[in-house]
C-alpha cells in the first residue's frame, strides 16, 4: 500500500522561509517522479515543483521559480520543498504526489497523493 505523508507546514510571516517534507512508503521511491502541488481555497490545484527519478532535472511553476527548491533523498524515501521569500499568495494546502516516467504539471497524471500540509503566510 502506497502512502505519502507530508509534514512541516505552519504559519509564517511574509519573507520567511519554511521547509516541508514528504515521506513515501510502499513503492520503490527512486523510480518515481515526485511532485509538489498546492491548492488554495476556491482555486484549482496548482503545480509547484517536480523532480525526476534521476534527481538531476527539476521543474518549477512560474510563481515559485527562484524562491522554492525541490530535492529528494532516496535513502530516506523523502522529497523536500524548501520555500524562501514566502508571500501571502503562497498560502495553500501543499501536497506531494508520485508518478512514473516524466514530470508533468497536470494533477491527474499523478497516481499517488498525500493528504497535504497547510502553509499559511501572513502579511
Short description:
By secondary structure, the chain is mainly β. It has no helices and eleven strands. The mean pLDDT is about 95.
Could you please describe the fold and organization of this structure?
The chain is mainly β. The chain has strands spanning about 5, 10-15, 20-25, 30-40, 45-50, 60, 70-75, 80-85, 90-100, 110-115, 115-120. The strands form 2 sheets. Strands 2, 4, 5, 6, 9, 10 and 11 form a 7-stranded mixed sheet that branches. It has a 4-stranded antiparallel sheet with strand order 1-3-8-7, with no helix packed on it. β5 (about 45-50) and β6 (about 60) form a beta hairpin.
Write the layout of secondary structure elements.
Layout: E1 3-7, E2 10-13, E3 18-25, E4 32-39, E5 46-51, E6 58-60, E7 68-73, E8 78-83, E9 92-100, E10 112-113, E11 117-122
List keywords for this structure.
123 residues, mainly beta, seven-stranded mixed beta sheet, four-stranded antiparallel beta sheet, 11 strands
Amino acid at each position: 500500500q502506497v502512502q505519502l505523508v507530508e509534514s512541516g507546514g505552519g504559519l509564517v510571516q511574509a519573507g520567511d522561509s519554511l521547509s516541508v517534507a514528504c515521506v513515501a512508503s510502499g513503492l520503490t521511491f527512486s523510480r518515481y517522479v515526485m511532485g509538489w502541488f498546492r491548492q488554495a481555497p476556491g482555486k484549482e490545484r496548482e503545480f509547484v515543483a517536480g523532480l525526476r527519478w534521476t534527481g538531476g532535472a527539476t521543474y518549477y511553476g512560474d510563481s515559485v521559480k527562484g524562491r522554492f527548491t525541490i530535492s529528494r533523498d532516496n535513502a530516506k524515501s523523502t522529497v523536500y520543498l524548501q520555500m524562501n521569500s514566502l508571500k501571502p499568495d503562497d498560502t495553500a494546502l501543499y501536497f506531494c504526489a508520485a508518478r512514473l516516467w516524466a514530470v508533468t504539471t497536470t494533477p491527474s497524471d499523478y497516481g499517488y497523493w498525500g493528504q497535504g500540509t497547510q502553509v499559511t503566510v501572513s502579511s
